[in-house]
């Protein structure tokens, strides 16, 4: 091993600025996207969920990874080992162990956020996609616990600053490979889960490609995970660990933050539409694949190019539509098609009471009564303009559920 002063050019080498720059830049980018996602779900769509909670936790953990990575750079990481004091080296190893534990936990939580998002989007009442997501959530929770225990007892760096752990610690390289390979495998499985459901959608080819590409963004992190895997051997089997571990450290930061960003991009379509970005529909309406219905029945629903049916309001229940891609179906519907749909609704979806009051003999719709929470008895349809408006809202919602192929909309108790 060289000694200080033997090779001044080698002694002067440092990767500290690069390491700090990568850590700050990627965590800043992911923080901005997560903040925009939370704004979208809380104030635009007004429908936050478990996927938003878990991605927020993952982002906090990601900030922690970046902080301890910068602390590693402060003490020793990014310089040659012969230029580092023993005290700084021990401090750097403690930060390394903390970074490994937080990184693995953040990865698990990020994957869980993807799965919660799939269950929210593909809300088909116990369908295959939702069941698969549930099984994967249970597996990830169990694997996360096992992984934390394994990483806590690796030989390097634990045994270097806790010598008593040396007799019981586990080979570091084996654990590094195991956790990284499991990370890659679960990534591929999770990002493949929604693809069969997307293929079954009745969408034009261009729109189906667009929706598929949105869900396939996560495969980009799989590529980063594979690149990071090849840096682990050099980091574990080296005589200059404080220098050779730099690439593994920054690839870990990049991989984690890219996963969080990929999870946060799909919900931002609603924000772009809200801002009136061309090609995403008119702003100001409800979006992101959700219908909001207040307890009084005066919820809103926005159809691009048509406007809102009913008055906007907050609170009440949030009903997830079957697929995020349903908005693409709406965007392709012309005003003429909508008029025909409403004409059909006028002849099919009116209740017996409405028909009796207006001189018709139209039969009740099961979907109408289900959404209204009524049973077709007298008094279910209110008199006057308010009753007409609410009937129009219900009909529009029913048409949307039928266009998506949903067997039945969510049930709600009698109002």
Automatic annotation (TrEMBL):
Keyword Glycoprotein assigned to the entry: answer is no
Residue numbers spanned by region Disordered: 353-415
Q: Which residue numbers delimit the Rhodopsin domain?
A: 36-273
Quote any Pfam family the record assigns: Fung_rhodopsin
Membrane topology is: Multi-pass membrane protein
Compositional bias, Basic and acidic residues, is annotated for: 374-415
| Protein's cellular compartments | Membrane
Which spans are transmembrane here?
20-40, 52-71, 91-114, 134-162, 174-197, 209-230
GO CC, sorted alphabetically, is:
membrane
**Where does the protein principally reside?**
membrane
Q: State the UniProt keywords alphabetically.
A: Membrane, Transmembrane, Transmembrane helix
Q: Which family does it belong to?
A: Belongs to the SAT4 family.
Q: What is this protein called?
A: Rhodopsin domain-containing protein
Originating species: Cercophora newfieldiana
């Amino acid at each position: 091993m060289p000694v200080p002063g033997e090779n001044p050019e080698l002694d002067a080498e440092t990767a500290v600025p690069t390491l700090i720059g990568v850590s700050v830049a990627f965590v800043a980018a992911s923080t901005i996207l997560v903040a925009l996602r939370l704004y979208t779900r809380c104030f635009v769509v007004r429908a936050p969920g478990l996927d938003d909670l878990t991605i927020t936790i993952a982002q906090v953990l990601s900030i922690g990874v970046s902080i301890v990575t910068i602390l590693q750079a402060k003490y020793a990481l990014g310089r040659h080992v012969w230029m580092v004091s023993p005290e700084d080296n021990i401090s750097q190893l403690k930060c390394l162990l903390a970074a490994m534990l937080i990184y693995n936990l953040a990865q698990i939580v990020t994957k869980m956020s993807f799965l919660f998002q799939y269950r929210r989007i593909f809300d088909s009442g116990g369908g295959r996609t939702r069941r698969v997501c549930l099984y994967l959530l249970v597996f990830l929770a169990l694997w996360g616990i096992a992984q934390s225990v394994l990483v806590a007892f690796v030989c390097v760096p634990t045994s270097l600053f806790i010598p008593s752990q040396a007799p019981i610690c586990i080979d570091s390289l084996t654990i590094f490979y195991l956790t990284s390979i499991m990370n890659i495998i679960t990534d591929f499985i999770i990002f493949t889960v929604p693809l069969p459901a997307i293929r079954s959608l009745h969408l034009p080819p261009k729109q189906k490609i667009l929706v598929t590409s949105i869900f396939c963004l996560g495969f980009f992190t799989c590529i980063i995970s594979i690149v990071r895997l090849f840096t682990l051997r050099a980091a574990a089997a080296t005589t200059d660990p404080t220098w050779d571990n730099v690439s593994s450290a920054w690839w870990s930061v990049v991989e984690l933050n890219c996963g969080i960003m990929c999870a946060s991009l799909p919900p931002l379509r609603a924000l772009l539409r809200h801002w009136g970005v061309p090609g995403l529909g008119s702003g100001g309406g409800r979006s992101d694949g959700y219908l909001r219905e207040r307890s009084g029945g005066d919820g809103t629903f926005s159809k691009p190019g048509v406007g809102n049916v009913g008055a906007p309001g907050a609170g009440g229940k949030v009903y997830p539509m079957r697929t995020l891609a349903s908005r693409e179906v709406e965007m392709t519907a012309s005003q003429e098609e909508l008029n025909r749909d409403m004409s059909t609704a006028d002849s099919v979806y009116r209740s017996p009471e409405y028909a009796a009051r207006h001189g018709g003999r139209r039969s009740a719709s099961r979907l109408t009564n289900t959404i209204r929470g009524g049973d077709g008895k007298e008094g279910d349809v209110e008199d006057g303009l308010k009753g007409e408006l609410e009937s129009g809202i219900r009909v529009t919602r029913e048409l949307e559920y039928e266009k998506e192929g949903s067997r039945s909309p969510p049930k709600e108790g009698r109002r």
